[in-house]
Specification:
Blueprint: H1 13-22, H2 29-39, E1 44-47, H3 54-68, E2 78-83, H4 87-100, E3 108-111, H5 118-125, E4 128-133, H6 135-143, E5 154-157, H7 160-165, H8 169-177, E6 184-189, H9 194-203, E7 208-211, E8 222-228, H10 234-247, E9 253-257, H11 261-273, E10 278-281, H12 287-298, E11 304-307, H13 309-312, E12 320-325, H14 332-339, E13 349-355, H15 360-370, H16 385-392, E14 419-422, E15 428-431, E16 441-442, E17 448-449
Parallel strand pairs: 1-6, 1-7, 2-4, 2-5, 3-4, 5-6, 8-13, 9-11, 9-12, 10-11, 12-13
Antiparallel strand pairs: 14-15, 16-17
Helix pairs in contact: 2-3, 3-4, 6-8, 14-15
Bound molecules: adenosine monophosphate (AMP).
Adenosine monophosphate is lined by residues 24, 27-28, 31, 50-56, 316, 318, 344-345.
Length: 452
């Protein structure tokens, strides 16, 4: 099935043209399986990791539908609704629609928090063929009467597992309650945890199921390694690694994950002090500052991006060849998402995780989820045999502290002025704190909204 070409899928000519311009010849496995099913109009429950081409898997049949049916959206109405957990992902999904739908006349809108409502209200007023939205802001606009979901034809939940992790379940249910019963519903998730299956049972009607990766499986092409070391050695080791990497004249991009927003900000600052080209993205940065940083990273103006989990969720940058888990994530699923940032679009990549004595329990959680041990990298300057022994022994280790989300630091709720640091060309640019001042934001209706 995967050997099929795009021409063999019954997608309309303008879509085929956009795809061939983009250089896509063969559908990816998720596309080869999902597109024919979706063209028939049925519901779909799809388990696919990031980087598998899942966006096109739902965007292409939807665009085909728009191209072959002349129906126009009515005022404040939406024909096809895509929900995503983060603003970054929403932006990327909307961009993908524009790329694949380049030769089709249709309207798209983007709705997410952290920016002014006015332009969003304006675009909704005309009615939209495709709306890509984050749940919190969509509910706000719904409650104010700016959007009418009563005639939605297709409802897509993208990265549903992440939406549940971020506490969006009630918002999703509320949005779903406003949709017509007769519609096509698609649910995409990187993992098939019990909650996802339950959500699927509640919202999908006799869905076809497509599984591209077994539960918790990590991107196949990622070379994974773990380093056991002391807490105080992390910074020196990462600096050594990055200096060595760039001394070797590598043009590729590195992505470093920290557990807290402060950690991300401070580490990027340290890299810059050390003459490396770096910046950070995290929930304390304003939306526009995050987008600017991401753009610079995508353009290769920044070599190293330090990020927290939530801020990095939607990153689709092709040349990331190294992911470092500077801190292991509190939730094992996040490991799968993190390393999925590399080895994208058929390329290979490396994922290195640092593990201190305090993180052994987290590493065990990850290995249980991915159902295999991560090979150990023994760097003789840093390797701590006693930490490795602790990991290998079956002895119980201290449980990771619960109650704090990865990527959210408790001590970072104050509003901060943006820091000025130097960019690759020595010009100052904004980095660090700013924006909404917390891992969650208050929506205009006063609810807490976890779009970071
Ligand atoms: P996604 O999993 O949707 O985030 O897509 C991962 C990456 O694969 C994106 O950069 C897409 O542009 C790219 N991609 C998606 N489908 C194909 C395809 N059939 N051929 C080549 N690249 C693709």
């Amino acid at each position: 099935m995967n050997e099929r070409k795009f021409e063999q899928l019954e997608l309309s000519a303008p879509i085929q043209r956009a795809l061939s311009e983009r250089g896509y010849t063969k559908p990816s496995p998720i596309q080869a399986k999902a597109i024919p099913l979706l063209l028939k109009g049925g519901d779909l429950l799809a388990c696919a990791q990031t980087g598998t081409g899942k966006t096109a898997a739902f965007a292409l049949p939807l665009l085909h539908n728009i191209a072959s049916c002349g129906r126009k959206p009515f005022r404040r109405g939406v024909r096809h609704l895509v929900l995503t957990p983060t603003r970054e992902l929403a932006g990327q999904v909307a961009d993908s629609f524009k790329i694949y739908g380049k030769y089709i006349k249709f309207s798209t809108g983007l709705v997410y928090g952290g920016v002014s409502e006015k332009p969003q209200i304006k675009q909704l007023f005309q009615g939209l063929d495709v709306l890509v939205a984050c749940p919190g802001r969509l509910i706000d606009l719904m409650d104010q009467g700016h959007v009418d979901l009563s005639q939605v034809e297709t409802f897509i939940l993208d990265e549903a597992d992440r939406m549940l992790d971020m506490g969006f379940i009630r918002d999703i249910r509320k949005i779903e309650s406003k949709l017509p019963k007769k519609r096509q519903t698609l649910l995409f998730s990187a993992t098939m945890a019990t909650e996802i299956t339950k959500l699927g049972q509640a919202m999908l009607y006799k869905p076809d199921e497509v599984r591209i990766a077994p539960q918790g499986s990590t991107a196949e092409k990622v070379d994974q390694q773990v380093l056991f070391l002391g807490k105080n050695a992390k910074q020196k080791l990462i600096l050594d690694m990055l200096h060595r990497r760039f001394d070797d004249n590598q043009e590729e991009l590195s992505l470093i994950f920290t557990r807290t927003k402060h950690g991300a900000k401070n580490l990027a600052k340290k890299f810059i002090q050390e003459g490396l080209s770096a910046d950070s993205i995290h929930g304390n940065k304003s939306q526009s500052a995050r987008e600017k940083t991401l753009d610079r990273y995508r353009q290769g103006e920044i070599d190293i991006l330090v990020a927290t989990d939530v801020a990095a969720r939607g990153i689709d940058v092709k040349n990331i060849t190294l992911v470092v888990n500077y801190d292991l994530p509190m939730e094992p699923d996040a490991y799968v998402h993190r390393i999925g940032r590399t080895a994208r679009a058929g390329k290979s990549g490396q994922a290195i995780s640092f593990c201190t004595e305090e993180e052994v329990a987290l590493l065990r959680q990850v290995e249980r989820l991915i159902k295999k041990p991560i090979p150990v990298k023994r760097d003789h300057d840093y390797h701590l045999q006693e930490v490795e022994d602790l990991h290998t022994s079956k002895r119980p280790v201290k449980k990771p502290a619960q109650g704090r989300r990865s990527g959210a630091s408790a001590g970072s709720r104050s509003r901060g002025r943006p820091n000025r640091t130097a960019n690759k060309r020595g010009k100052p640019f904004r980095s660090g704190a700013g924006g909404n001042g917390g891992s969650s934001e208050r929506t205009s209706s006063g609810r807490r909204n976890y779009q970071r």
